[in-house]
Design goal:
5-stranded mixed β-sheet; alpha+beta; 5 strands; single chain
């Protein structure tokens, strides 16, 4: 299917918090589907919890959330932030893309690519020397996008359940 609708990217605002919560809960569900022992289980209140979490980031000088709108409706978002030097992670200061999520029926239209580009540009403007992100191992479509944007594989998270 060829999509012809135009979309715009803008900084998220307070009026977006509810839809950000729904998109965040969708992201939780996707990750839980990848590995139900590693990722948080979506539950009643997940949308509200994620909305509250992202809502707190809207006024942070070290974090940014951008939304993609298509025909006046928010169909995706990206959440990025500045991270200080981390001895634990053996890395210097960096930008970090925490979330990128696009509604399923709006995918394959360039929205995720443009959201990522806007987040990377924001991190560059803020002085981040590099950008990092994590991707669920089974999420090959997202990893293909990240590779196309110039990201390289640097770490592999491994999990072992103790119970």
């Amino acid at each position: 299917m060829t999509r012809t609708m135009a979309f715009t990217i803008r900084r998220a605002e307070g009026r977006d918090v509810d839809v950000l919560g729904r998109l965040g809960a969708m992201l939780m569900q996707t990750h839980y589907g990848f590995d139900s022992r590693r990722f948080l289980a979506p539950r009643e209140g997940s949308e509200h919890g994620y909305a509250a979490f992202l809502g707190h980031m809207l006024d942070s000088p070290d974090d940014a959330i951008f939304v993609a709108e298509e025909d006046g409706e928010v169909v995706g978002y990206v959440y990025a932030g500045l991270e200080p030097l981390s001895w634990k992670e053996l890395r210097g200061p960096a930008g970090f893309v925490h979330d990128v999520a696009v509604l399923e029926d709006a995918r394959r239209s360039g929205i995720a690519t443009e959201l990522m580009n806007v987040a990377i540009d924001w991190l560059r403007e803020k002085g981040a020397p590099r950008v990092l992100l994590w991707s669920a191992a089974p999420n090959v479509h997202a990893q293909a996008l990240f590779h196309r944007l110039g990201f390289r594989d640097t770490m592999i998270e491994m999990t072992m359940e103790l119970s």
